[in-house]
Amino acid sequence: MRTIHVIGIGMGDPGQLTVAAIRALNDTEVFFAMDKGERTAELVAARRRICERYITGTDYRFVTLPDPVRAGPAGADADYRQTVAEWHGARAALWAEAITSELGPDGVGAVLAWGDPSLYDSTLRILDAVADRVAVRYDVIPGITAIQALTAAHRIPLNEVGRPVLITTGRRLRAEGLTGATVVLLDGDGAFADCPPQTRIWWGAYLGGADEVLVAGTVGAVAEQILATRAAARERHGWIMDTYLLRPVPDPPVA
Domain Tetrapyrrole methylase: where (predicted)? Predict the structure, then answer.
């Protein structure tokens, strides 16, 4: 049966790869990567550099697949989920065809997942759908997440003592508001700016990479700086991956 390794490669620093990830890289014949065009070509190039650094042989190759166009976000939550499901279905069909044509019956392929495959990444859901079409098995090698990279860069713990942490998206933060400590990913338009001005924020982009940029403070003090920094970085690189941690002002102590 064909095998696919789903390898978490961290947030850009090749030094973040685990020994298990390096071992999986060296076990792989074909690496599958989604091609999203010129603006994100650097992400594919970074994956190639990781392979060149850690793979001891030369008998591997990359297969790039054109990423299906995803419809814009709809207003209703059910519509959004349907849009994502259709996009995943189109990807699964593409992947199934590529795995069948590029891997032999007992071949080993891999998908290099930015960060960790468990955190806001579609790879595992898509491979479940691929397995309904093609005889394939897969395993998962975890990687350093954006959350770990963010808290390490700012030298802060993720949670406060005895307090939970919510992980969500910018879209849901804007819709539902801030109720406690929250990590936000996939925020395209700066939903943090709607939070109360005294909210504490730790923000970072290109975490773990040479272009890493960090800002921390209160929303009232640094929101405009983050928005300007984010826009300039996106313009310069053609893409951006960022995340942030929010903490509301603590409740006053009980007298």
Answer: 3-222
Torsion sign, CA atoms 177, 220, 238, 145: negative
Its pTM stands at 0.87
Token pair listed for 83: 């849009």
Q: Backbone phi, then psi, for 93, in 5-degree steps?
A: -65, -40
Question: Side-chain half-sphere of 18: how many Cα atoms within 13 Å?
Answer: 15
CA dist 203 and 217 (Å) reads 9
CB 156: neighbour CB atoms within 10 A? Answer: 15
pLDDT level of residue 73 (50, 70, 90 thresholds): low
The torsion angle over the Cα atoms of residues 116, 141, 97 and 52, rounded to 10 degrees, is: 90
- Strands of the sheet containing 182-185, edge to edge, are 166-169, 182-185, 242-247, 200-205, 213-218
Look at the chain and count its residues. Answer: 255
